[in-house]
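Everyone, describe these structure tokens:
***
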Amino acid sequence: MTDDLRIDRVETVLVDVPLRRPHRFARAVMDAQPVLYVFVRTAGGITGVGEGVVPAGPWWGGESVETMQLVVERYMAPVLLGRRVDDLHRVMRDVGDVIAANLFAKAAVEVAMHDAWARCLGVPVHTLLGGPARTSIPVTWALGTEPAQVVVEEALGKLDAGLHHTFKLKMGAQDPAADVARIRTVAEKLAGVAGVRVDLNARWDRLTSLIHLPRLAEAGVEMVEQPVPGAEIEALAEISAALPIPVMADESLRTPSDAVRLARLRAADIFAVKTTKCGGLRASLDIAAIGAAAGLPTYAATSIESPVGTAASLHFACAAPGATWGSELFGPLLMAEEMLTTPLHYAGGHLHLPSGPGLGVELDPDKLRAFRRD
């Protein structure tokens, strides 16, 4: 059994998965999502898979799927080979001694090790995380920076189909006054039928936020995500204190140390936790626990993961007691192609835990070949 758990191969595959429609951020737009898959195989013949992914390239966190592939193959793989998949803490500590930062790349490897370890034991990944606190989680649908009528029509279509009940709109690509007017129009159209939230992707400064965000609260917007750059935690605290609606930290929150500082300064009301940006499942659990201890709920956020990364985030979100503010795990629904042999189960506005060992998902080898980069 000991030898069976040893890692004897680490492989990476880059794919570009087409989207159903372009997805627009404040600083980027994409019509396909690049994804790095990392496969960790044990001597016993069990393979675990993890995913490295960022939304539309290195503008968000500094990494890209291309840098992740290089870091995993050249620097992480030599640390992993010959080590046991259940020796996860020490392996990732040793990876950290070799590679600073690169949390997205580390997350791909850490999740692949969890998947392989759980498959070796014949249990789901959430068992390794303490078991499920819930078996499904609500899913918010993200809307882009398009004109108000376009996003209202998309939101109403989702509502009519019973797929989603809350929507998050991207901001920051337009003049602030025009952007606020656009959001107010959407909020008025959806008032009483759906929750409306906004994400500025750190595009405004402190003063712009203090001037314009109160008008969004007046219009019924129920949450504001990361209005100012990630390093400006004091400004985030001032904005949070000034608004009557919750402020969520995303770019300001990557590590447990960030979580402690945010909680101490009361700089946010909600923690946006992405297993990708946080370096994996264990650090994500630590951040959620810090938030829970400070009375700050966790929201399972997204980097627009494919079904593999989405499944990993789902296991975290269902295992973390403090993940009580729902999720944004819509990535697979935005993709034009199904990458799994059996799709993840979305129903009633929720994403439901899959059954089976490991992450509970299997990549479709035909789709992997079809979208693999040369």
About this structure: The first strand starts at residue 7 and ends at 24. The chain has two domains: 3-122+366-371, 128-364.
